[in-house]
Amino acid sequence: MKAKIVAATSVLAASVAAQQTTWGQCGGIGWTGATSCVNGAACTSYNAYYYQCIPAPTTTAGRTTTTTTRVVTTPTTTSRVTMTSRTLTTSTRTTTPGTSSRTTTTSSRTSSRTTTTSTRTTTGASGSCPTNFVSTSGKEFRLNGKKFYFAGSNAYYIPMYGPNDFGDMDAALDAFAGSGLKVLRTWGFADFAGPQQDYVTVFQNWSTVPPTILETQEAGLPRLDHVIAGAEARGIKIILPFVNNWGDYGGIDLYVQKVVGSGGTHDAFYTNTAIKNIYKNYVKTIVNRYKNSPAIMAWELANEIRCAGTTLSASSSCNPSVTTAWAKEMSEYIKSLDPCHLVAVGDEGFFNIAGRSEYVYNGGPGIDNAALTALASIDFGTFHMYPIPWGMSWDWGNQWILDHAAQADTLNKPMVFEEYGVTRDSGLRDTYHQQYHNTVFANSIAGDMFWQFGTTVPNWGKSYDDGYSIYPSDTYEWQTFVVDWAAKMASKNT
Ligand SMILES: *[C@@H]1O[C@H](CO)[C@@H](O)[C@H](O)[C@H]1NC(C)=O
């Protein structure tokens, strides 16, 4: 998930012959077709690479555009826009120093630093890895010598609590473990340029180039240490991405802006040597820090790589072979540092199939899930799913799951349904969560991780709700789609 849709009607020149149909492409870099939409749809910038005709929100009272502004303590200004055919919800999150009511205490800090380096069996000369590390066997995962089908979730925000909000981290991890969810995906990146603010988590400070990694400062990696150690103590496995395709917490655009400058395109990230070396240095620091921890299920190259990002567009030379070559280089690099943890790409699962016209199947985002997952240094495939912003339907979601289960069958590698959700406002949440779970359960999907886990913790309060979150207070959904579902997926392991 992402700030991937920018509502921007009338951003295009109006010189148009034909009008594009609903859900059709209506602009973006390289686009030469119609740039206006039929009545009832608005040409909307999905990213600089792709604009599409989205049905306009209805004007019925209560179903019109809603904008909320929430001030939270995150290190970047973030826009998240969630669209459905009936609603358009925008939230803007802004960093505002001094608004936090939380207090700083340093008492819990010392204890948290040491736990992640617990005694571990190292990879012996035999090449065997610890059995309490997750491994793969064909299309399945293994853990402690047994099958490891799982339900998990995303909670990107847990390392972002601070300062010294270890009580909040512990409370969130307790709630996660208590739900029965087994795998947590959370952000292993926090790229930031600017003056230090105590409660803003910063793993990599881009005030200088090359950036500085905050290895010891409280605002930096000690926060991630506490999450990894806390997961280890609770038997939670973590999937940890190293950079964001999107602008939240810095992201690829920040790398490009800082290293290449104003003329840089998003995909310079995949080809520029200086950028690749900075990324590798960050990866090396994180991997070496936690390489002995059984809490790490998998390193992930990035969250949702694409040719284009939030603010920077793609160059004309970017295509799936560029992102695949980058993924090969970086995954091989990680394997050279740590041969015992799994490595995944973290892509959205887009296909690049000749003859297909839909954006999600035609390579348009610059991604080829089949090629990425087939890489020898990639252990399992990932896919995400946001049907409505992608111009597809909720029903089609079942097909998308089947498409990736078929990919798992073909490649004989596990496939993880790593992000998806149904917005609360759609009124279809129960219907489609149930359908998707049924499809997952009956097909070759090794792990299922909805976006995202909602919780309420002492200092921070309720976790940010982008419309997709499921909280314990969503009583039926929590019980059915979190607690019972986790138990059902685990039943495959007996
Ligand atoms: C980043 O570095 C700059 C320059 O050294 C410094 O002024 C700033 O406080 C640093 N920010 C963080 C978050 O450490």
From TrEMBL:
Keywords: Glycosidase, Hydrolase, Secreted, Signal. It is found in: Secreted. Residues 18-54 form the CBM1 domain. GO terms for molecular function: cellulose binding; mannan endo-1,4-beta-mannosidase activity. GO terms for cellular component: extracellular region. Residues 74-126 have a biased composition (Low complexity). It is an enzyme of class 3 (hydrolase). Its EC number is 3.2.1.78. Residues 1-18 form the signal peptide. It comes from the Eukaryota. Residues 74-129 are annotated as: Disordered. One of its GO terms (biological process) is mannan catabolic process. It catalyses: Random hydrolysis of (1->4)-beta-D-mannosidic linkages in mannans, galactomannans and glucomannans. PANTHER family: MANNAN ENDO-1,4-BETA-MANNOSIDASE 1, PTHR31451. Belongs to the glycosyl hydrolase 5 (cellulase A) family. This is mannan endo-1,4-beta-mannosidase. The lineage of its organism: Eukaryota, Fungi, Dikarya, Ascomycota, Pezizomycotina.
